[in-house]
Design goal:
By secondary structure, the protein is of the alpha/beta class. Strand 1, helix 1 (11-20) and strand 2 (27-29) form a beta-alpha-beta unit. The chain has a six-stranded mixed β-sheet with strand order 2-1-3-4-5-6. It has helices at residues 11-20, 31-34, 47-62, 96-107, 174-180, 182-198, and strands at 3-6, 27-29, 65-75, 116-126, 133-144, 160-162. Helices cover 33% and strands 22% of the residues.
Length: 200
């Protein structure tokens, strides 16, 4: 079975991808599992650019087909922020509770219909020695709630209530999250690309 490197040092994200890509014909491995340090700087202005930076760096360093992704939280009332800067909002060392408080400060007093948001995930798949990078994209719509809820997930999941749902991303089961999340939707499309790559 061919190996697929997931270009992330985030254990939560790596675990999600192992589940999301199960059965796609590839053995999912992480930089840590390979005993390598994969350090990339997200200098792109778009999700696509940042995902490509990770995928290409991983493929060059490992010699393996590599999946890189970039994702973000886009809040309509904040003109689409946090966007590609979501992971670095208020500085990379800032904890998510402090970030939640700052987001709520900026949205304070807004009714639910003005608190619409979406999670976006773009996946790039790169092969070593090739300049061809393939992209897929997934999105999920939701509402930013006033107080975080739930113990599951990671990142901004506790303040993101899924549209047409009473629960936040941090309150739903991992199985349900994998079906409806932005990362789950992008990974389903990526699995199709990966199956095609096996036969090329």
């Amino acid at each position: 079975m061919p190996r697929l490197l997931i270009a992330t040092n985030n254990p939560g994200k790596a675990t999600e991808y192992c589940a999301l890509l199960e059965g796609c014909g590839w053995q999912v491995v992480t930089p840590r599992r390979l005993g390598m340090q994969l350090s990339t700087v997200e200098t792109g202005d778009t999700y696509e650019e940042n995902a490509k930076i990770k995928a290409v760096a991983g493929a060059q360093a490992s010699g393996l087909v590599t999946l890189g992704d970039d994702s973000g939280l886009e809040i309509e009332a904040l003109a689409g922020a946090l966007g590609v800067a979501s992971a670095r909002f208020m500085g990379e060392e800032t904890g998510y509770p402090e970030r939640f408080q700052e987001i709520e400060r900026r949205l304070q007093g807004l009714p639910e219909e003005k608190r619409r948001a979406r999670f976006v995930c773009v996946i790039a798949i790169a092969s070593p020695g090739s300049t061809d990078v393939r992209f897929v994209r997934g999105e999920v719509e939701g509402i930013i709630i006033e107080e975080p809820r739930g113990e599951g997930g990671f990142g901004y999941d506790p303040i993101f209530r899924v549209s047409q749902h009473s629960a936040t991303m941090a309150e739903i089961s991992p199985q349900e999250k994998n079906l409806i999340s932005h990362r789950g939707r992008a990974a389903a499309l990526a699995a199709q690309v990966l199956r095609e790559l096996i036969h090329e």
